[in-house]
Task: inverse folding
């Protein structure tokens, strides 16, 4: 058995989030990621945010939201889609699940396959393991190495295009992620699912978060079919290992946590008063 097969055998299920109206992207995903075990790949129907109850209605959508309403709808659809993927994994009884978005692109190398296989055998309990992420560079500490590949326990990373969730973490995350009925108020506090994962999961003590470096899944440059925004370009890739946690970083952690919580309260209040924000107006130069 080769190293890649050993790695994918350690993953119980793989779900690819894809809109029903974008089946061509699913076909392209399978072509680009032909090295993945195709029999394990299952399509997870994505949620269209514009179809969710409350879209375009007060108090969350007002005149100031303007054209950005579609972007907020995309963020809502993304959050609900990832919740559905975790629910699917739980309902199927999988011991873990690799959740992928349909713009993820695999670049697996031998050292990473060995390292991740070992990690999946050794890690216990509830955790998230990121196989792909973007800037900014996270902070953490290394827990394992294999050649040029390293596994880090991190405070959080930014991205949702490729991550593994263990079965004990399913209900922990589902208790925090929004249902269709809750999603607009949830977004008013947390902005998006990737920022929620980064700022609250590990930092809030919900469960440990790990990340492999170099990443083995990149995000293809282009426009998200769910959010309608540019989600990746050449400047997004995280091209260096996580920063080791310094004493100063540890001392400042409670203040960063407090700032994050205060910002969520402030943005929620603003959204209640005037709806989701739109783009900032450019000042006219005199």
Result:
């Amino acid at each position: 058995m080769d190293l890649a097969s050993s790695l994918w055998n350690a993953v119980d299920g793989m779900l690819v989030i894809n809109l029903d109206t974008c089946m061509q992207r699913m076909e392209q995903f399978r072509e680009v990621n032909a090295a993945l075990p195709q029999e394990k790949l299952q399509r997870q129907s994505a949620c269209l945010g514009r179809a969710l109850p409350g879209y375009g209605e007060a108090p969350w959508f007002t005149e100031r939201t303007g054209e950005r309403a579609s972007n907020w709808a995309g963020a809502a659809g993304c959050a609900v889609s990832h919740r559905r993927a975790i629910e699917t994994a739980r309902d199927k009884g999988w011991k873990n699940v690799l959740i992928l978005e349909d713009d993820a692109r695999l670049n697996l190398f031998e050292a990473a396959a060995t390292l991740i296989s070992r990690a999946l055998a050794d890690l216990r309990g509830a955790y998230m393991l990121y196989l792909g992420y973007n800037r900014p560079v996270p902070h953490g500490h290394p827990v394992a190495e294999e050649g040029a590949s390293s596994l880090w326990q991190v405070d959080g990373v930014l991205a949702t295009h490729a991550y593994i969730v263990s079965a004990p973490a399913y209900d922990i995350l589902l208790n925090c992620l929004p249902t269709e009925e809750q999603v607009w108020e949830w977004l008013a506090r947390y902005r998006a699912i990737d920022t929620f994962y980064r700022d609250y999961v590990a930092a809030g003590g919900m469960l440990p978060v790990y990340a492999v470096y170099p990443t083995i899944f990149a995000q293809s440059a282009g426009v998200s079919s769910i959010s309608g925004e540019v989600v990746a370009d050449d400047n997004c890739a995280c091209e260096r290992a996580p920063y080791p946690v310094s004493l100063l970083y540890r001392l400042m952690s409670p203040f960063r946590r407090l700032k994050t919580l205060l910002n969520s309260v402030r943005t929620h209040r603003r959204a209640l008063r005037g709806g989701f924000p739109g783009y900032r107006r450019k000042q006219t130069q005199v």
The chain is about 35% helix and 20% strand.
